[in-house]
Write a structure and sequence with these properties.
106 residues; mainly alpha
Length: 106
């Protein structure tokens, strides 16, 4: 895992709305069905949101999933919380083709 690549992804997650939305959706997909339903983290599987962020980020990710525009407050929250997931996102993207992921979300 390249620290330089993770640092660049961390930067993109705080400056690029498209990258932010794709990453948020990817993390949302990492949640189990029950975790998505309850806005929580149940499984300790290093996928999706952590226990502290799940109640906040799951509903925001759901809004993206259903095509809603995010409010300024949502954007501020996501830009503040998302960078901590850069290593998880980088690992996910290395384990499958990023182009496949991009096609899947958009």
């Amino acid at each position: 895992m390249s620290a330089k690549n993770i640092q660049e992804l961390r930067r993109l997650l705080t400056t690029d709305k498209t990258q932010m939305e794709m990453a948020l959706y990817e993390l949302y997909q990492g949640q189990t069905t029950e975790e998505r339903r309850t806005n929580s983290t149940i499984e300790k599987n290093n996928r999706g949101f952590n226990q502290e962020d799940a109640p906040v980020l799951t509903p925001i990710a759901r809004r993206i999933y259903f095509g809603a525009e995010l409010s300024r407050e949502d954007m501020f929250c996501v830009y503040a919380l998302l960078p901590k997931y850069a290593a998880q996102l980088w690992a996910n993207r290395q384990s499958r083709s990023y182009s496949q992921f991009a096609e899947m979300v958009g």
